[in-house]
Please model this.
Amino acid sequence: MPEIDMTRITDNLMSVYNYAFIDAMPYGFYKPNDAMYVGVKLVDKMYHCPKCKGEFTVKYRNDNDGITYFSKSRIAAQKKVYEDLGLDFPANWELMEQPFTYHIIGVCSECAKKDIMESQEDGQHIYNLCHELHMQDELMAAKAKKYMTNSLQKWLDGITESSYLMQFDLSTRESLRDLICAVIIQDTKAVEDALQEYRDTIQPIIYEAKQLLEKQTPAWKANVAHSCSLPNSMSDEEYHEYTVAFPDESSEGQDFYMEKSIEKERVSMFLNQHRLTSLEEVLMDAGFHEEWIDMVVDKGTSLTK
Model:
């Protein structure tokens, strides 16, 4: 059995999920040329849900002097979206001169709850199961950090005299790290309970998804959730710093569903990816957080006042 990089399990799961369901273009390191790309003064994106007629806008950051490069195929796709919405597409010379809005048609999260998320059609149901599995993976990672932080906080709350902390070596970051890890490892009950709950939850999800996947065609289309706060690549071939647009930090991370082609092989890769199975893996995957050092230092400072 190959050695597992325990510090990267959750990150690997995220990467494989994105590869299977979100974006899969390779990364490029060159500046786009005029033959393949068009510079656009991109300022925001607007989401349109035909089901409820709802619309909302997400602003982009002003990177690369406000110019984002679109592949010509993406420009052609946007022209079609503008046409479907009854909007006039800007002239070529206006794209770099006038503020441009990127329009997206799909299904908002509220409308998705009524049909997409409850769909029993095999292709859509497979995606829904994988999305739930992805959410459980992320939740387990979040719980691990939370409960490890709580263990440290509980230990600190029990200290009432500065003399107690003075018995430990707190002179270096390494010594503080060793102390914190020793404290956390002594109180892992909440993490262990969360791990057991995680295992019990994901097992039937994975089983059902694999059963459905066996009968599925090599590729199919399904509505896939995209977070509105994630960056967007405006190239269909590859992405790099010139083609990626980053939403403003104040944007909300709500999901919006869009139809996407899904490949059976990639879904299988996601389902078979190694997941957290032991306490050791959970603790290693959660890693060490600098805020824990601040918690100890702040406690010591408060006791010496």
